[in-house]
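Journal club prep — side note

Before the paper discussion, L.F. wants everyone to see what a predicted structure for a comparable chain looks like in token form. Sequence:
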Amino acid sequence: MTVEPEQEAVAEPLGAMAAGESDADSRLWGMLAHLSPFAGIFLIPITIFLPFGNVAPVCVIPPLVIWMLKKDTMSFVDAHGKEALNFNIMAYIGMIIGMILRYVLVGYLILMAVGVAWMILTIIAGITAYKGQTYRHPYCLRLIK
């Protein structure tokens, strides 16, 4: 009895570049989708007028804008924009939980953990996107598919 080798399923990896897509432009916009929430740090005075009075809403808006502008023309940016948006929404939810629980004092630990994890994972994702590779944030719900 002979065993035929199994044929591997060829699937397009997450964020693969479509034909005719510029590699440099896609990588740059993918990186900007991940790193654009850092713009919220410079907009902290404006956040006083936003709900919950913190920087978290400003950190969700830049990846949303980049994703909405480039999702139809660049599949690489579509994948990275969704990933950045999902991660920043989850970080925003974590910040809200930390803000609520700060009255129990454990919230301060949650706020610090979410802030440090957000900063490190955002930088890692931006660097990985600029290298042209895919990145999936750990423990992140995929709310936007």
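L.F.'s comment for the group: The chain has one domain: 23-130. Keep this in mind when we get to the figures.
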